[in-house]
Design brief:
- The protein has about 325 residues and is α/β, with parallel strands linked by helices.
- It has two domains: about 80 residues, no CATH class; about 200 residues, 2-enoyl-CoA Hydratase, Chain A, domain 1.
- It is built from eleven helices and eleven strands.
- The strands form two sheets. Strands 2-3-4-7-8-11 form a six-stranded mixed beta sheet, sandwiched between helices. Strands 1, 5, 6, 9 and 10 form a five-stranded antiparallel beta sheet that branches.
- Helix 9 runs parallel beside helix 10.
- The protein is globular and about 75 Å long.
């Protein structure tokens, strides 16, 4: 190094000091400031939840009349799910609050899932989805039965795209379809709509995140006629699917009875120990931004007979 500096000086080049290793210093600063930010955020979180944590400590760990706690925990969660006062305190609070909300607002879609009920709901959803059906009615008309709106039925529809595209007409049976996930209904609606078509509106408490849901138009199925069968048990995302198709296509006819009328949407959040909480967090409207909540969708052709599929075929042939 000394010889190199003497050579540089002799030749008249400016002497530059060797570069220092700044990476460890930068890393130190990053972790120092990162830890500081983490500490501040943690302190704010603890401060904002102080009242709840103090109450939890007082009741779960110190309330003297444990027989009252036992009854509350068992009534809220079921005796088989109670693991301890502290461990299950949050679950009890969620159960009590959601039950009170339901009694005030008549919102039967906001509640706490116990582990057994949560697993049962998923098993029932899969079992219902497995009954989806596609079959030929005539050489030009295909029939598709969707029992719910879920991952299973969405995948079923997507897997039958090629078969469906081989027919001129579709009879879509949504009778007794109680709905399901909005995201799955949007994916189904994209099969029939074009990119940019409005499938519906989601309205939240925060106006900033209220928005119109637009079709991605990834796969387009075109039919001469689409006949949708509906009844009083057609609800939720199934009603959304009807609204999105009728709002964007000019060849859709509904036959049957007035639908249930559920224009609200829920989010289900898994919790610890197998629990989950479901809550109504949005209002849902069709492409025209008109809510059908509590009203339902009137059929274009009222029908309460025993051969609604025959009525659908008559409409296709004579319409």
């Amino acid at each position: 190094m000394l010889l190199y500096c003497q050579y540089i000086k002799k030749e008249g080049f400016p002497i530059k000091p060797p570069k220092t290793r700044s990476i460890p210093i930068r890393r130190y600063r990053f972790f120092k400031y990162g830890f500081f930010v983490f500490f501040i955020l943690t302190a704010l979180l603890m401060y904002s939840n102080y009242n709840y944590m103090a109450f939890k400590f007082l009741i779960a760990e110190n309330y003297i009349f444990t027989d009252a706690l036992d009854q509350l925990y068992n009534d809220s969660l079921g005796e088989e799910n109670v693991k301890g006062y502290g461990r299950n305190f949050d679950d009890v609070v969620i159960s009590v609050v959601t039950e009170k909300i339901r009694s005030i607002n008549q919102d039967r879609y906001t509640y706490l899932y116990t582990p057994e009920r949560y697993q049962l709901s998923k098993d029932m959803e899969k079992a219902d989805a497995a009954t989806a059906l596609v079959e030929e009615l005539t050489p030009e008309t295909v029939y598709m039965l969707l029992p719910n709106i879920s991952d299973g039925t969405k995948d079923f529809v997507l897997s039958h795209k090629q078969m469906l595209s081989g027919y001129k007409n579709l009879v879509l049976d949504l009778r007794s379809n109680y709905g399901g996930l909005l995201a799955d209904f949007y994916k189904m609606a994209e099969l029939f709509t074009r990119r940019g078509d409005i499938l519906g509106y989601e309205k939240f408490r925060i106006p900033l995140i209220t928005h119109a849901v637009k079709s991605g138009g990834e796969s387009y199925l075109e039919f001469d006629k689409v006949i949708i069968l509906q009844d009083e048990n057609t609800a939720s995302a199934a009603e959304g699917l009807i609204l999105s198709l009728k709002g964007n296509l000019d060849n859709v006819t509904t036959i049957g009875e007035n639908t249930f009328g559920k224009g609200i949407g829920q989010v289900t959040v898994p919790l610890l120990d197998g629990y989950a909480v479901k809550a109504t967090v949005m209002l849902v409207a069709g492409p025209g931004d008109v809510s059908i909540h509590g009203v339902g969708i009137e059929p274009d052709i009222p029908y309460a007979g025993s051969d609604i599929i025959g009525a659908a075929l008559d409409e296709i042939e004579g319409g």
